[in-house]
Design a protein that fits this description.
Structural class: alpha/beta
Strand content: 15-25%
EC number: 2.8.4.-
Number of helices: 13
Number of strands: 19
GO molecular function: transferase activity
Pfam families: Radical_SAM (PF04055), UPF0004 (PF00919)
Helix content: 25-40%
Radius of gyration: 22 Å
Organism: Olsenella profusa
Enzyme class: transferase
Distance between the termini: 37 Å
Strand order of the largest sheet: 15-16-17-19-18
Length: about 425
């Protein structure tokens, strides 16, 4: 599906061909797509819907076999549109299967280097690289694609080798952006009107980079620099691995005065140690429990999210029950539930004990029921408290703990509003009154 909202704003004085942006996959992909959009915008290229586009960028994802199939389908669909627009395919599927994608149609171009995507689009449109800076003619939004909470990529790649994952092959070894670059990107997002910026990465907690003075910063140090050197009103940390939720990180969050959102999405995947071992995860449940206890003791009111995979090869009924019980103990405010998807090219794909799809479906149903139950309980506990809610849609905002908040429809979009949370609906949406 497209991550871009068609802007329809053509730079004054020129009817330039437009580009459509289609994003599949993770928040890192979305942040990278925003960067491409910014480069195209500076060249005066309008972001449009696919029906109007002379070129289409498809940013692909290979996290599962299903995601890979969706990527191929998106490329085929874009290539078959009337007028045969140039389709620039990039992302993880492009890195792993460049030849296969380029053979889909003559108008498909594969670009493995995302830093070169904008240049390839300009080339396809017959426009000079660098172009003109017509950004001022476009309606100001926090991102060129119209999203309210832009992501800034601080890290890429991963050095872990989870048995279900192929992303480390597509993205390579872990590497981090220089602090000065991150500061510049956050400042640019703020200049566009962003009130909240999300720090993203494939393994964001592994951030390690040296600044201009030679000082090496980990993620807590980077956040301190961003708080000191930018005017961003709220930072949010994207998904993080349990070992990287350190007391140092939690103390920085707690000391920020609300400028770091009190929310952490700590990846669990399974609440059963035997399953974690088969997954080759770098922690066990005892460490995860300590991490949760540390976060809750140091960051008042923190909300916790996670990912859970059900039906991983070898997962027995008893292992699933233990996993579910552990999730209940952790009281997650947000839990993404995934059925295991066999990913060719990974060790898990050939493991014994592949779980029947019907069994996976039932486990997924139960896990989603627990997710909804926990979210509602955590939302109810917030009634009577105060927070700052970022207005993303008319009458709808998001809290620091990543809860949906119903607010006055008259509140302006992209504003960060102090609210008192007065009630909660059955779907865990909170009701907020502006203070």
């Amino acid at each position: 599906m497209s991550d871009a909202r068609a802007r329809g704003d053509v730079p004054a004085g020129a009817a330039r061909p437009g580009v459509a942006l289609v994003n599949l996959g993770c928040r890192v992909n979305r942040a990278e797509l925003d960067l491409m959009a910014s480069e195209l915008e500076r060249a005066g290229v309008p972001i449009v819907g696919e029906d109007e586009a002379a070129a289409v960028v498809v940013n692909t994802c290979a996290v599962t076999g299903e995601a890979e199939a969706k990527a191929r389908k998106a490329v085929r669909r874009a290539a078959a549109r009337p007028g045969a627009p140039t389709v620039v395919a990039c992302g993880c599927v492009a890195n792993l299967f460049a030849g296969e994608l380029s053979s889909i149609a003559p108008n498909v171009v594969v670009e493995r280097d995302k830093r070169r995507v904008a240049a390839r689009v300009l080339e396809a449109l017959g426009l000079p690289e660098g172009g003109v800076d017509d950004a001022g003619a476009l309606a100001p939004t926090p991102t060129p694609t119209g999203r309210t909470r832009p992501g800034v990529k601080v890290q890429d790649g991963c050095d872990n080798r989870c048995t279900y994952c192929i992303i480390w092959k597509a993205r390579g070894a872990g590497r981090s952006e220089p602090p000065e670059h991150v500061v510049s990107e956050v400042r640019a997002a703020v200049a566009r009107g962003a009130r909240e910026v999300v720090l993203t990465g494939i393994n964001v907690g592994s951030y390690r980079a040296s600044d201009a003075s030679g000082r090496t910063l980990a993620l807590p140090g980077l956040i301190e620099v961003l708080l000191a050197e930018t005017d961003v009103e709220r930072l949010r940390v994207a998904s993080i691995e349990p070992p990287d939720v350190t007391p140092g990180l939690c103390r920085v969050m707690a000391a920020s005065g609300g400028r770091v959102a009190p929310f952490l999405h700590v990846c669990l995947q399974s609440g059963c140690d035997e399953t974690l071992r088969r997954m080759a995860r770098v922690y066990r449940t005892d460490l995860f429990r300590r991490v949760v206890d540390t976060a809750r003791s140091l960051v008042p009111g923190i909300a916790l999210g996670t990912d859970l995979i059900v039906g991983f090869p070898g997962e027995t009924d008893e292992e699933f029950e233990r996993s579910l019980a552990f999730c209940r103990e952790m009281r997650f405010a947000k839990m993404h539930v995934f059925r295991y998807s066999c990913r060719p090219g990974t060790p898990a794909a050939t493991m014994p004990g592949q779980v029947d799809p019907h069994v996976m479906a039932e486990r997924s149903r139960r896990a989603r029921e627990l997710s909804a139950e926990m979210r509602l309980a955590e939302a109810r506990a917030l009634v009577g408290t105060e927070d700052r809610a970022l207005v993303q849609y008319v009458g709808r905002a998001v809290s620091g703990g990543l809860f949906d908040v119903a607010v006055d429809p008259a509140l302006p979009l992209d504003s960060l509003v102090p609210v008192r949370l007065t009630a909660v609906r059955d779907d865990a949406t909170l009701v907020g009154e502006a203070l």
